[in-house]
């Protein structure tokens, strides 16, 4: 009896959310009707196999294609859990246009609890866009996201958080592409609509032939309205970060016209802070890092941010700020390695 009930439950799940393997995202988006479809794209490189999960939710009326990606770094849990909750809550009848959602882009990183990289090939997914069709598993994932998701999007949202060692201030960000002002202005308006307190604008200097490396930079390079949410830190699930991500996504979807249902009532920042430049403090040498500062703290030029010691406790050097600004994110654990970003300090010119 229990086995029979289990089979019935499984059949009902598959009936509600069909698994599609052979169709492209573009083909599914062309289909008529209001529906949700869950898809998997198989990835194989030599003897290494993985997959890319994708959900498409299509509404009855026409509207933009709004794509949402979580889990490019599988150890950044708040974005992944927030998107899991969104998948449970959003119904096709409340959608205008289409949502294309990648719930976990880097499945192997997530399942193996691996910060930054994919354990199948040791590569950082957010450092190899646009990817390669016949490359390593991570390169193929980047290629699929570029080909199947970014290329079919009107708006592209990449959600991140602080990885295992990152202490991070929540913010929403976009690239200031001055030769595509219409899309850049829309990215700014979506950022403002998110209700998040901190808005970050990154400079954009890519030529058409340059490699983008990052997912939402690839979308920006392709002329698509693209932005990213950063929330969560130090490789744990904070409920407040999950809630912040969800409420920000709902407000963006409402602003874009993609969501017609009621959005949860949440507090919106009365005053938003805008940072249009960043100073990156690199780790000068390997060692153990000490600092009393945390993300969100204000710093001043020539202020000592912390110091590095060797394994015997001998102080090697101080770390000094070069600007006045606010710590957007920093390494929040003791070990540091030469060349890593120790601090990212946001400021306004």
UniProtKB/TrEMBL annotation:
<dbReference type="Pfam" id="PF24827">
    <property type="entry name" value="AstE_AspA_cat"/>
</dbReference>
<dbReference type="InterPro" id="IPR053138">
    <property type="entry name" value="N-alpha-Ac-DABA_deacetylase"/>
</dbReference>
<dbReference type="InterPro" id="IPR043795">
    <property type="entry name" value="N-alpha-Ac-DABA-like"/>
</dbReference>
<dbReference type="InterPro" id="IPR055438">
    <property type="entry name" value="AstE_AspA_cat"/>
</dbReference>
<dbReference type="GO" id="GO:0016811">
    <property type="term" value="F:hydrolase activity, acting on carbon-nitrogen (but not peptide) bonds, in linear amides"/>
</dbReference>
<keyword id="KW-0378">Hydrolase</keyword>
<keyword id="KW-0479">Metal-binding</keyword>
<dbReference type="GO" id="GO:0016788">
    <property type="term" value="F:hydrolase activity, acting on ester bonds"/>
</dbReference>
<feature type="domain" description="Succinylglutamate desuccinylase/Aspartoacylase catalytic">
    <location>
        <begin position="64"/>
        <end position="255"/>
    </location>
</feature>
<dbReference type="GO" id="GO:0046872">
    <property type="term" value="F:metal ion binding"/>
</dbReference>
<keyword id="KW-0862">Zinc</keyword>
<protein>
    <submittedName>
        <fullName>Succinylglutamate desuccinylase</fullName>
    </submittedName>
</protein>
């Amino acid at each position: 009896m229990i086995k029979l009930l289990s089979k019935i439950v499984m059949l009902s799940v598959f009936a509600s959310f069909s698994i599609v393997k052979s169709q492209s995202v573009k083909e599914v988006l062309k289909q008529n009707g209001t529906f949700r479809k869950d898809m998997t794209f198989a990835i194989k490189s030599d003897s290494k196999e993985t997959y890319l999960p994708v959900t498409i939710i299509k509404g009855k009326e026409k509207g933009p294609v709004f794509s949402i990606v979580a889990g490019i770094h599988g150890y950044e849990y708040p974005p992944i859990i927030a998107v899991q909750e969104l998948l449970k809550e959003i119904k096709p009848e409340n959608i205008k246009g289409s949502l294309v959602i990648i719930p976990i882009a880097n499945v192997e990183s997530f399942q193996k609890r691996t910060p930054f990289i994919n354990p199948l090939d040791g590569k950082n997914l957010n450092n190899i866009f646009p990817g390669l069709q016949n490359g390593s598993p991570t390169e193929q994932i980047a290629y699929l996201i570029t080909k199947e998701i970014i290329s079919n999007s009107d708006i592209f949202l990449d959600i991140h958080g602080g990885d295992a060692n990152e202490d991070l201030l929540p913010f929403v960000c976009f690239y200031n592409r001055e030769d595509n002002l219409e899309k850049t202005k829309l990215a700014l308006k979506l950022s403002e609509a998110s209700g998040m307190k901190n808005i970050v604008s990154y400079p954009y200097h890519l030529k058409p032939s340059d490699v983008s490396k990052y997912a939402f930079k690839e979308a920006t390079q392709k002329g698509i309205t693209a932005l990213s949410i950063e929330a969560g830190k130090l490789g744990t699930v904070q409920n407040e970060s999950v809630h912040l991500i969800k409420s920000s996504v709902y407000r963006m979807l409402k602003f874009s016209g993609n969501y017609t249902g009621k959005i949860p009532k949440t507090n919106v920042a009365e005053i938003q802070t805008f940072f249009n430049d960043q100073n990156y403090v690199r780790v000068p040498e390997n060692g153990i890092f000490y600092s009393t500062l945390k993300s969100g703290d204000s710093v001043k030029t020539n202020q000592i941010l912390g110091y590095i010691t060797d394994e015997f406790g001998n102080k090697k050097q101080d770390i000094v700020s070069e600007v006045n600004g606010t710590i957007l994110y920093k390494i929040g654990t003791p070990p540091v390695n030469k060349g890593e970003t120790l601090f990212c300090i946001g400021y306004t010119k």
